[in-house]
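Need tokens for this chain, all 161 residues.
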Amino acid sequence: MLENGFITLERKICTWRWFREPNTLVVFLYLILQANYEPHDFENITIQRGQIATSYPSIAKNTGLSVKSVRTAIKHLIETGEVAVSKYPRYSVYTVVCYDKYQDKRQSVGQAKGRQGAGCGQAKGTNEKKATKYNKDKEIYAAPAAHTNGRRTDNPGRTDF
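Here are the structure tokens for all 161 residues:
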């Protein structure tokens, strides 16, 4: 199982037809995360970039889903063209059809370049500390105020915003 690296995932996945089907979403993400990022030989065949050689029981074990749930999820993904399959006697080779959309080939090895933006649920801004004078000899540091999304903050216990 691959443990290093990353994939890119567009926010518009939230509007994808299988986003509200947790089992299908989990299986799809598993296939993307575990697919080869470069060709490798496996039992006399070459598993290409964007492909994974696995089985229903293996996916079930690694995702915590039942074999039946995995089978149904794979069926959904094949029917809608997100995944293609080639079957062999002891395993299947699944191809994530638009793999390059999720894994930029230029950044598939090593670390991402550039700055990381705000993550899910994070406000855009700076993480710099703000200095406040306490007295002539000492300074205390306070983090900037948390993002409030326009809510009132004068009563932190109030929840009816």
